[in-house]
Specification:
154 residues, 9 helices, mainly alpha
């Protein structure tokens, strides 16, 4: 019995070391880290224990992950719209409420306005679909304030 407990503890420590190396490289989401640990052959029960421990220690946080992911994509990638952020983060296993909160935290009015300008530049929203311009922008997750600011500037 004692040997089993020691073996379990050793496996948890091994899994936690792997998790910490991954976290040290880049912010991780709960779903992403879980998948990476299980892909490495870590038992799902041990994975859940490690994930729980990392959450308790605040080393793993989906909100922080989502916000940093958005910031990184605003700087490096070519994001399309708030909806693109939402869908992309949900595909990575981040819950919808966390995604929406992160988008709202990161996209202040000026940042969202810049994003809208890039969106319009990259996608011809007027000719791609037979949808009114404002409706298309609203569907993409842009706020009415930013849409009106853009329209008023034209």
């Amino acid at each position: 019995m004692e040997e089993e407990a020691l073996s379990f503890d050793a496996e948890c420590i091994k899994a936690e070391k792997i998790a910490l190396r991954l976290i040290a490289r880049a912010e991780q989401s709960v779903a992403g880290l879980t998948a990476k640990l299980e892909k490495r052959g870590i038992d799902p029960y041990i994975t859940r224990q490690v994930i729980s421990s990392l959450l308790d220690k605040k080393l793993l946080d989906d909100t922080r992950y989502a916000e940093r992911w958005i910031y990184a994509h605003l700087k490096v990638k070519k994001p399309l719209s708030p909806l693109w952020f939402l869908v992309s983060l949900e595909r990575r296993g981040v819950g919808k409420e966390i995604c929406l909160a992160a988008i709202n935290n990161v996209l202040d009015e000026d940042t969202e306005y810049s994003l809208l300008l890039k969106f319009i530049e990259r996608i011809d929203v007027l000719t791609k679909e037979n949808v009114p311009f404002k409706t298309k922008l609203r569907h993409e997750g842009f706020s009415p304030e930013v849409i009106n600011k853009f329209i008023d500037s034209k």
